[in-house]
Fold this protein.
Amino acid sequence: MDRDVQVTAADIARLGDVGRAAVSNWRRRHDDFPQPVGGTTASPTFSLKEIKDWLRAHTEARPLPRREWFWQELRAGVAEDELPALIADLGSFLLRARRGEARPENDAQRGLAELAAVTGPEETFQFLYERYAESQRASLTPKPVADLIAALLPASARRVLDPACGWGMLLRAVRERSAGQLLGQDLSEATARLTAISLAFGPGDADIRAGDSLRADAFPDAAVDAVVCNPPFNDRNWGYEELTADARWEYGLPPRTEPELAWVQHALAHLVPGGFAVLLMPPAAAGRRSGRRIRAQLLRRGALRAVIALPVGSVPNMSVGLTLWVLCRPGGSAPPGAVLMVDTSARQGDFATTALAAWERFRHGDGGDEPGVSRAVPVIDLLNDEVDLLPGRYLPATPSGLSPERIVRSRDRLHETLADTLALLPGIEPAPSGRDRPLVPVAELERRNLLTVHQQAPARPGETPAVPAEAPVLTAEDVVRCRAATGPPGSVRKELRTRPGDVLVPQVVRTPVAVVVSGGGDVIGTQLHLLRPDPERLDPHFLAGFLTAQGNLRHYASMSSTHRVDVRRAEIPLLPIEEQRAYGRAFRHLQTLTASLRQLAEHGADLVQDTLDGLTGGLVLLSADDPAWREPD
């Protein structure tokens, strides 16, 4: 059976061994490129059969990636619900073939064996495994987070359990650090089987089973050195009614609305005394009132050792920053007197390094304190009415990195910027009287071919965008703020790109704005005028300067505090090109002054804030001869 499955632009790029931009170009430039059969305007899907035929007809000169084609052929060869079993069977075949116990018996096995001969059996299966997970839009724990969770465990942990193992990302990270025994359980039988085969390619012993860990624990008597877990969040159907009297609730019966606290206690119940667990938790679990009694018990008995706040975005598709809870099953020693609180929310690039450094300091008795980042908080300070465990609440308010030296540098930088700004002040002298400068509307300049005026059109619903799907669009707000393009791709009808020397004018403004393009290449969005002057007859900086003059506001429609710009009505003087260029140089100088004044304001605000924080944080005092310390006369 060959199904005609649907593929995305990303799939097509892989099949053609090109980037996403190339697929967008194919759609725009080739009339015979297949039309979408599903998806949305922004994210269409296509017929796999039509795409394969088109690629064969248009890419004969170069080889195409065999494994990508093999994957799509597998998808098309069986029903959707049969695909995981087929991939698992192929994985089992690779394992047997690696041991010399099997030879290919069908086309799928022969194709797989050919791929494995090139890339290796484990890499080949991992490719199919990951493509299938991607096709299911599986929520995989990102590798940096999985590696951090594994690194927080003691190096001596030899037997590790993941009771909600999913696609095995956490167990794989653990195995990369030590090849011990891995135990895992997942609700999905198909996922559990695939994960078991994936882990079977590596060293050590892996035992992965299917089932609901809370309702039907596959390892009820297992005592392990460590537990790692990314449990399901906000699952109200976790088994509250059936498990009310369960022996695992040593720290209290989890409320129906607190499934995460059930997973915490499930993890602790499986640990040997002194064993560690690291769980990925939603921030709400640290502060909901319904769970405060269990959180208090975890603190009193020394089970909770650290809470680490992760940056927003470190786990995709989550609108909040998640947290890691580091737990330890109490043993014979006295419970610790403090819990480590770490906030890596501002450390997007090095959150794992920051968290591990703080944990190592804390674990070795060095306190773990780093201003604004980590602090060992006494347990007694956490045992209030709320028992709120979010790290940000307990970290010092002093900004990270603030020091007396930084404040002095801020002051010196302001001095330098002020001197640079004063040097830019223009010399002014009266203009000769009686100068006659006839003004001409932009529409007349366009009629005389001194410039052309262009506008963008919005994309229509269901229309194939003319712009590559990954190309951002330059908005009016981007032009006003002098920033890179941020508009949504696919929102415009024409591929109208800027060139050096173009002048961009937003259509709705508070004060006149006209920006001369230096680099070019951006797709412009709606609500913008693009003026393209002939540089031999009309200087772009001269044009932009007069367009931003207050005198041109009288030609625009007033809308309360804003103006709607009809750029063709704006008036520009007709001057010789050399005189235009002189004006253009003057206008560029004023733009430099404007940027310097803006920077002066920013540096001044930084100095005021740093000094205020330094004074309130006890880092600095104003000098004794500063006027601020003196009594008023």
